[in-house]
Design brief:
Helix content: 40-55%
CATH class of the largest domain: Alpha Beta
Order of helices and strands: EHHEHHHHHEEHEHEEHHHHHHHH
Radius of gyration: 21 Å
Distance between the termini: 54 Å
Strand order of the largest sheet: 3-4-7-5-6
Number of helices: 17
Shape: globular
């Protein structure tokens, strides 16, 4: 199997390096990577190159917590098209199964094991490599991302029982980075790298569970990963719905994902009798109604998942389209009072 990882696996690398006073570009070139790769987070690149980059960067800066610092900046959306499916799973167990299912689209070298031990469960992470490669920083990054992912499913107040590292204990001055990221006991010289969580957490209802949205996301992901014959408008609309939560639903990004230019894509959409802005608006209308129908989804989260930088921008858009605020729409929807959902009605 090819040892590949999405460019998004390096999310937070540039800010972390600049925060340490280092120019990352020479290190990228040294590891055979180009800064231009970061323009497309979905592109697959060599997993070994990313491991070497992080190890070399930690050595160059003298910062042994580089991977953990990067993990602290991660969001669920950084997992790419699978994030929408993972976010709406009813339990953490099913979210972890979804990660395993779409492993090759996230990081083909990272393997997650779920191992029950009575009232506790170990979430163990291993790297499946054809030959050895130093990967302490990549392992730290993966563990930090796993904690962030679990918290996004179970709620921000959740934390594991403990985090385990197979390496020795770091210097005392570095421990504040571990405490800030994990909020639990951290042990070293363990037999594995992973988390220990309560067994009950696996089947506890997820904070943002929505079976309808999860099913819809699975259909969208399957269609994008195994595209049948579709019009340009259909393909763009599906890409928009997948990319909105990550904030990358732009005409430029959709054109790159389809292997064409913005101008060519605009001509293709014009031939289909539509435009990118029309498709973006339609996708937001559909997803807004679905998100607001779940009373457990905060309106601020809805705004973020629809790609708005602030709740104010989302509220203004919603008022222009639906004639009422998101909060008023939710109240009326819960009371099953019909509200016009199409402009001009």
């Amino acid at each position: 199997m090819a040892e590949l990882v999405r460019v998004a696996a390096l999310t937070g690398y540039f800010p972390a390096m600049r925060g340490l006073g280092a120019d990352p570009r020479p290190l990228l070139r040294e590891c055979g990577l180009s800064p231009e790769l970061f323009a497309n987070p979905e592109q697959l690149i060599s997993a070994r190159a990313t491991m070497r980059l992080l190890e070399r960067s930690a050595e160059f800066t003298g910062c042994e917590t580089l991977g953990l610092r990067m993990a602290g900046e991660r969001a669920l959306a950084n997992l790419g098209v699978a994030s929408l499916l993972i976010a709406h799973q009813p339990t953490l167990r099913l979210a972890l199964q979804a990660i395993t299912e779409f492993r090759n689209q996230i990081n083909s070298t990272l393997v997650l094991h779920v191992e029950p031990f009575g009232e506790e469960v170990v979430l163990r992470e291993d790297f499946a490599l054809s030959s050895p490669e130093p990967h302490r920083q990549s392992s730290d990054l993966a563990l930090g991302v796993l904690v962030r992912l679990c918290a996004s499913v179970l709620g921000d107040n959740w934390s594991p029982l403990s985090v385990c590292f197979s390496r020795g204990k770091p210097q005392a001055s570095e421990m504040q980075v571990y405490r800030r990221l994990f909020h639990c006991d951290v042990t070293f010289d363990c037999e594995f790298n992973g988390l220990v969580i309560a067994a009950a957490d696996l089947d506890r209802p997820a904070a943002r569970a929505d079976s309808a949205l999860a099913g819809h996301a699975r259909e969208l992901i399957s269609s994008v990963m195994n595209p049948a014959m579709r019009t340009a408008a259909q393909e763009v609309e599906q890409l928009i719905m997948l990319l909105l939560p990550s904030g990358r639903a732009t005409v430029q990004y959709c054109a790159e994902s389809m292997g064409t230019t913005v101008r060519t894509l605009q001509r293709m959409l014009d031939a289909d009798g539509t435009s990118f802005s029309d498709l973006l608006n339609r996708a937001r209308m559909q997803l807004s109604a679905q998100y607001l129908a779940n009373p457990r989804t905060r309106i601020t989260d809805v705004a973020e998942m629809l790609g708005y930088g602030s709740i104010g921008a989302y509220t203004r858009w919603h008022g222009q389209i639906f004639g009422v605020s998101p909060r008023q729409w939710r109240i009326s929807a819960n009371q099953r009072q019909p509200i016009s959902s199409a402009p001009g009605n």
